[in-house]
Every structure is written in structure tokens, then in C-alpha cells.
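Lab notebook, design round three. We kept the backbone fixed and only want residue identities now. Task for the bench partner: fill in a sequence for the structure below.
Input C-alpha cells:
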């Protein structure tokens, strides 16, 4: 009888630890673990199987939290070219990115939108738990902009900055 009373307590503790880890995990893992946790809780199985499933989810989240912490520690220092027109609005743009789920920015060609906004997103806290994606209509533009941003961050292409086009993926996990 003692083993059956211990299982729900252990299950509740595991679920509590998983819930505590979820907000600190990478976005991709939050979604997967959240769905899996829901499926497990909807199921009828329990006992050792349930404990094993929850333990695996907890381990996955612990790794995810560790990865997010490492990404935060290793994020590159941000440097902005002061001559670009978009720099006059940098603080306003970063504040808007922090406080709104959607921000529309328009500006003249050559003002620095494509190369500086990804860095502003990083400054606003984006890109640590997930990725910052920028679309370009042309392959050459995607490659050139990725090279430029990596160069401005002082990194090699494919570490923090990459590009993905048909048949070519130069992105890190």
C-alpha cells in the first residue's frame, strides 16, 4: 500500500517541477513538453510508466533551461553603425519590440532596417529562447545580409547568425 500512496505524491512533485521549468525553457521545448504533458495527463496510464514519462520531460526541460542560459551568456556584444538613419529611432524600436507582439517598421531603402532590426530584437531580449527570423525575397539578399550581420557582431557565419535558403542551411541549432 505504501508504494501506491508514494506514486501520486511523486507524480505531483514531478508535474510541479516541470511546470516551474517550462517558462525558463527554449520555446521549441515549451511547446513540445506542454503538448506531451497534456497528452500524458489525459491518458489513463499511471504508475511506473507515468513516472518514467514525467522524468523524461523533466530532463528535457533541464537541458533546455541550460541551453537557454548558455545562449544568454554567449550572446554577442551588440555594435551599431551610428551613421545609419534607423539609429535615430533605435531606443524607440527596442522599446516597441519589448512591449508589443507585432511591430511594423518602415523606412527608406538603405536606412539599415534589414541589418539593424535583428540586432535590436536581440537587444530587446528576443532570440535567446528561440530564433529571430528575417525573410528576404532574393537568395543573394539573404546571404549578403546574414554575412553583414555576422560581421557586425564579430562572429563567423553559422554561429549566432545564419541563413537558410533552398538546398542550403547555414544555421546553428
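Proposed sequence:
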Amino acid at each position: 500500500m505504501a508504494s501506491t500512496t508514494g506514486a501520486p505524491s511523486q507524480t505531483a512533485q514531478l508535474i510541479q517541477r516541470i511546470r516551474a521549468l517550462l517558462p525558463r525553457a527554449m520555446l521549441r521545448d515549451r511547446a513540445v513538453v506542454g503538448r506531451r504533458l497534456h497528452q500524458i495527463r489525459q491518458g489513463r496510464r499511471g504508475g511506473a510508466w507515468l513516472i518514467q514519462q514525467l522524468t523524461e520531460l523533466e530532463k528535457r526541460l533541464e537541458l533546455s533551461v541550460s541551453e537557454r542560459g548558455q545562449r544568454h551568456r554567449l550572446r554577442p556584444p551588440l555594435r551599431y553603425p551610428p551613421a545609419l538613419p534607423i539609429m535615430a529611432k533605435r531606443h524607440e524600436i527596442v522599446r516597441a519590440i519589448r512591449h508589443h507582439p507585432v511591430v511594423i517598421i518602415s523606412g527608406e531603402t538603405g536606412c539599415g532596417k534589414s541589418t539593424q532590426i535583428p540586432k535590436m530584437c536581440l537587444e530587446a531580449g528576443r532570440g535567446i529562447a528561440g530564433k529571430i527570423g528575417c525573410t528576404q525575397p532574393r537568395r543573394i539578399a539573404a546571404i549578403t545580409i546574414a554575412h553583414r550581420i555576422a560581421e557586425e557582431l564579430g562572429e563567423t557565419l553559422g554561429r549566432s547568425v545564419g541563413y537558410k535558403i533552398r538546398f542550403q542551411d547555414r544555421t546553428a541549432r
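Keep this in mind before ordering anything: The radius of gyration is 21 Å.
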